[in-house]
Amino acid sequence: MNIKWNADKYTKDFSFVHQYGQGVIDLIDFNGASSAIDLGCGNGALTKALLDKGLSVIGIDSSEEQLHIARELYPDISFIQSDAVSFSVPDPVDIVFSNAVFHWIDRDRQEKMLSSVSRSLKKRGQLVFEMGGYGNNSLIHSALSNVFRKHGYAYRMPFYFPTIGEYAAMLENAGMTVTYAALFERPTELKGDNGLEDWIRMFIRTPFSIVEDKEKENTIIQEAVDNLRESLYRDGKWYSDYVRLRMKALKG
Ligand code: BEZ
Prior knowledge:
The protein is an alpha/beta fold. It has a domain at 7-137 and 159-190 and 240-251: Vaccinia Virus protein VP39 (Rossmann fold, 3-Layer(aba) Sandwich), CATH 3.40.50.150. The protein has helices at 7-13, 16-25, 45-52, 64-73, 107-120, 138-150, 164-173, 195-203, 214-232; strands at 35-39, 56-61, 78-81, 93-99, 121-132, 176-190, 233-234, 237-251. Helix 2 (16-25) runs parallel beside helix 3 and helix 6 crosses helix 9 (214-232). It is globular and about 55 Å long.
């Protein structure tokens, strides 16, 4: 999926994405590891955290806007513009790390992405990642789907949120052995009085391509937000109903 990001707003208002990513870094075994890839590095905040752990690291992302920010913030890090599905690196690395990226890849491209990951890892190299897992944002997607239907549109789910079992099988087929897996709910506070509306505008893009004008799109978003107030607005704050899938797998 090729999204044109508002990378400044992403960095300013959605910094929780990389803040939570620190917990994913804690799953990495740094013993004897010297090289890493941050796959879908975005603005490079976690690429820098990997560099600070003493790794030589390459950040890979398909978004020109995100890479522009990453290169400005961290001029000493090497960033490559590439799709997560078909990326390649000159030499295999010890660690492939990825935070909040794999769910953007359609189900039918996941195997190809995991074979690119496997190819870029040394033997016994680690893949450590977090993505949206089964049930992620189910309240938000079902509210949007209901409002789309009410206005005569079909809502096409733009993400892939697998179960542990489903993804473990794919990792094994790609030549990796799963050593850690967790699926857990993590309700996440969204910034500001318009937190949920801003979140929908930032992340839910392709389903709106079939909506004929901006006015209709605004109506749909407003109605969905109103319908979600009862479940996702608490004590003056908006929350996103995140479910995380965290996994670690070794090549071979
Ligand atoms: C996630 O990190 O789970 C996510 C973020 C934005 C859109 C969809 C999922």
